[in-house]
């Protein structure tokens, strides 16, 4: 319980007017501030409260308030990143805020290149069953991010995907379906893999249609939706807006786009505009085997970007055509098929 310290009488008491705010116990103010932090639509909501008065400034940094802060409270813009912002996130992590663990973990791992710290923070969130943290760690394991190619751990990636999928993460469910279908890190089971892919598509459609923040567009309005630049075509013949990126992914994307963060020569960013993840070594991400112009950190980003834009842009790359022509003249008559066809319609090559 919080101590209810005796406070000095406000200046209004001198005029004979009582200040009821001074009479509110700290416990009650902390509860109200906790509700505010949980429903904050931006970091500014908390900042405006903290600069109101000294008492609010003190109580807004109470561990109970910080532990309840929601994802929007950590929607930090790249231009506002500073040492004080870093300290605020660390305070939230110390208070046990799972969203802060995941957000700061992503920033540390990919932006500040503190791989060990970032991975441990994401693991801390994953232990508390944070679906995004579980899926992000699965991507790290599948790609061997932060290490060499030999550091890939496909079985660990599949296990993390399975846990995230159980908690309702759609991209993790889709990734797991592809792993089963291809025998990637798990014994091959084509029928079960296809079933999971269908389930992922069904969950995706149900999530979109049940969300009050999105509108479902009929296929007859497909052209107008495409012109708006923010919609994609689902596997069920309907257009709907692309899902909103998590604040951590938005920060990653803006960090590298603004030039504050730099990646080594030859490394690439994930081509899904809502992801923001960079490669940590050469040829870490999968590349489209048809055009060779895009690359993805995961199947989830691949599937989303295919529906969002790449389906209309993908065209055969001349290099593949030349190599296939050369292979046609082999003595055994065999031709290497470089294109993997998936149920979602994407074509990617693992490097």
TrEMBL record:
Which InterPro entries does the entry mention?
At2g35280_TPR_dom, At5g50450/At1g67340-like, F-box-like_dom_sf, Sel1-like, TPR-like_helical_dom_sf, Znf_MYND
Where in this chain does the record put each MYND-type domain? 272-314
* Residue segments, region Disordered: 329-351
Segments of skewed composition (Acidic residues): 342-351
Q: Does the keyword Zinc-finger apply?
A: yes
- A single MF term (Gene Ontology): zinc ion binding
Which segments does the entry list as coiled coil? Answer: none
- Record keywords, A-Z: Metal-binding, Zinc, Zinc-finger
- Superkingdom of this entry's organism? Eukaryota
Q: List, alphabetically, the PANTHER family matched.
A: MYND DOMAIN-CONTAINING, MYND-TYPE DOMAIN-CONTAINING PROTEIN
Protein name according to UniProt: MYND-type domain-containing protein
